[in-house]
Amino acid sequence: MKKYGNGKSSAKIIWFGEHSVVYEQPAIALPLSAVSVSAQISFNENNEPSRIYSRYYDGLWRQLPRELAGIKQMVIKILSRFDKADQAFTLTIESEIPSERGMGSSAATAVAIARATFNLFDKNISRNQLLQYVDIEEQITHGNPSGLDAATASSKWPIWYVKGAENMQLDMNLAGAFLVIADSGIKGKTSEAVANVSDQMTTDYDKTNSIIMEMGQIASAVPPLLLNNDIDELGNLMNANHNCLRQLHVSNQQLDKLQRVAVLAGAKGAKLTGSGLGGCLIALSDSAQNASLVAKQLEKHGATKTWIQPLGQF
Ligand code: MEV
After folding, report:
1. 145 C-alpha to center of ligand 1: Å?
2. What's the rounded Cα separation, in Å, for the pair 238 and 282?
3. What spacing in Å lies between the alpha carbon of 174 and ligand 1's midpoint?
4. Ligand 1 centroid to 58 CA: how many Å?
5. Domains in the chain, CATH or no CATH each
6. What is the pLDDT at residue 281?
7. Smallest Cα–Cα separation from 307: which of 155, 192, 146, 181?
8. What pLDDT is stored for residue 184 in this prediction?
9. Mean pLDDT of 259-280
10. Closest Cα to atom 8 of ligand 1
11. Residues 132-164: pLDDT tens digits?
12. Which residue of 101, 152, 157, 260 could cross-link 12, Cys pair, CB 3.0 to 4.6 Å?
């Protein structure tokens, strides 16, 4: 066993297919390596009680707030696997990922902690094992997650994801393209948004299901466009996907405004990303110059933070 275990993970962006992925439609998502979270864990000496240091909560592990109940259960499960459930520890989490902004903060944090704990025991963790542990956290934090956040946060590559099926790495050839990510400044509400869509499925199945199917068709049209560098059509599909999400009532005025601002600033397309009802917007640019113009315009119209992700690096 080592003295310290370290693990890392990153934010994620859902490019196409949030919400429809919950209903077994395909989704496409990217890890954002520039926005990361790291975890370090060590066992305590001298009978010191378990403690956590993090942006979410600093203090005794036994007084962990309810919002971190998922993390707690996951850590207990992993320590039990190594027969160390009663061993006191210190866990430190450093995260650049804004919470509740649709960037997968909870799943990414769980990935980093699971990796750190396996690293402490000097053991490798397979991707499947990792996803099973993170699912313990995500089920408690988000209710009925598709698994997309965890799959993306644990990947180095853009992925094609279908719930319950093996996810696949996507090949891309988008040399001159950039994704601008803008924080709307409003907290997203994953479980509320997912429950809203589920209610609509119950009360108006035909209409809701046809929007979900349309989003599935949009995502299915994307892989060849990624290979052929067809930025114009990708942008059109992002606008169409945003429109579907609006019809599902998971957008809001600020996200709709930022979507229009991005397109007016010359983005090829833009859409909300993640669960919606707040969170982030993404916009596709065909040059670094346009990406920084779009980011500036979004900030001028209320985005509290922006990031630019070159797509050529994948
Ligand atoms: C949340 O990041 C994405 C949703 O599709 C929910 C899920 O996939 O579990 C809204």
Report:
1. 6
2. 9
3. 25
4. 28
5. 5-169 (3.30.230.10), 178-310 (3.30.70.890)
6. 97
7. 181
8. 96
9. 97
10. 146
11. 999 999 999 987 889 999 999 999 999 999 999
12. 152
